[in-house]
Amino acid sequence: MPPRPPRLPHPAPTARRRTAARRLSPRPAWLPPGPVSPDTDAVPDPESLYDRLRTPGTGCADVLRALPSLPPSDDRRLLHGLANACLAVQGRGGSWEAAALGHGASAERPDDCKSRAAHDVLNGLLEFHRRHAEATVRLETAPTAAPACAHAIAAVDAGTDGPGGTLSVELSGTYFDHAELLPDGEVLVGGVSVPAPLTAPSTGSGDRLRLAVTAPAVPAVPGTALDVRVRDGGTEVVREDAFVLAAPDPLTPSASP
User: Fold this and answer.
1) What is the pLDDT of residue 255?
2) What is the DSSP string of 141-208?
3) Alpha carbon distance 217, 248 (integer Å)
4) Can you give the pTM of this predicted structure?
5) CA-to-CA distance for 47 and 30, rounded, in angstroms?
6) ∠ CA(132), CA(28), CA(21), 5° rounding?
7) Could you report the per-residue pLDDT of 205-231, keeping only the tens digit for each?
C-alpha cells in the first residue's frame, strides 16, 4: 500500500474564527468620508471626532479618550456608542451595551449629515452583532465611498438694498463646527471678498447654516449675474449666477437752504 499522506494540523482557533468571519455576509460598513473638518481651533467637536473615527484601527480608542471634553449632547452619546461598537466588533474591547445606549440616544435619525452617517453605521454594527453574536471582523475604511455630506450653497438672497446691504447665504451639508467658519471663512461675491469676520443670525439647524454678510461693491454693470463663493479650510463651494446685480439707489438730493 502506498504511504498515507501526513495529517495536516488543525487550524488554530484564531484562524478558524478569521475564516468564519470571512464567510459572514455582508461585512458591516464603516464610516464614509466626511469630508474632513478643517478643525481650525484644534478643539474636539463632533465633526472632527467623526473624522478620527474613520481610522478604525486607532481612532475608536482615541475618540473614547477625547469624548469627556465635549459637553453632554446626543452627538456625544452617539459617538460614544459608535466608538464602543467599533472596538467590540473587532474584538478589541468596547461594550455592546454602551453601543446600544448610544444608538438609543438618536433613535430618530439625526438632522446633520455626519451624525446621520454615524447613526446608520452604528445601526449596521448592532444588526451584525445580533446576527453573529460571537463574530469579530476587521473594519476597513471605504476611501472611494460617497461623502456623508454634500456641501453646497443652497440659496442666496441679495434683497433689494444693493451694495452695502445684507446678503444672505445659506449653506447645506456643513461638515464642520459652525463656530469655526465665522472667524476663518471667506465669502466672495463676483470675485470680491466680503470683509471678515462672517456673521450668522443663528447657528442653523442640523447641517444648514445661514450667513449674513455685507454686499460689497462689485465692478460690474447692473444686470450682471454674479457668482457667490464660500471658502473655508481650503474647501470652496460656489453658486453660479446666484443673483443679478441691481442698479444702485440714486442719491437723494440735499434740501436747499
Assistant:
1) 39
2) --TTSPPS---EEEEEE-TT--TTSEEEEEEES--S-HHHHHHH-EEEETTEEPPSSPB-SS--STT-
3) 10
4) 0.81
5) 16
6) 50
7) 689 999 998 888 899 888 899 999 999
